[in-house]
Description:
Shape: elongated
Oligomer: single chain
CATH architecture: 2-Layer Sandwich
CATH class: Alpha Beta
CATH superfamily: Cation efflux protein, cytoplasmic domain
CATH topology: Alpha-Beta Plaits
Strand content: 25-35%
Distance between the termini: 65 Å
Amino acid sequence: MAVPGQGEGGGTAPEARGRTTIADSVVEKIAGMATREVPGIHSLGSGMARKVGAVTDKVPGGRPSVTRGVKVEVGERQAAIDLDVVVEYGASIVDIAADVRTSVITAVERMTGLEVVEVNLTVDDVHLPYEEDEEDGESRVQ
């Protein structure tokens, strides 16, 4: 029997009926994509992860994994994100770090509703214009 003036659920708003759990991998993908969109970011991942990833973690279509270099800790209402990045030579690391934080926080909070409490960046390398990309070069293994 429905109570007059109330819908099913005893007047509880639809968005409050049930629980939403967001997997760490979802936040990793969002953070990875948001980081890659920042001008001056060459790639994500530490040196060894990039070398291993050039062979092992390509997805169909030849693109590198979007989560390489991204680690997250997700709670019920908050997330903390650690990023390993390679920046382009000549770019201001301070400006890139600020832009990455803004991009990642905006994307994760908008898409998940989680509060991002910190975004930590480790700049592992600077990509020089004449360096060959491990990701773009031909692999020695097939």
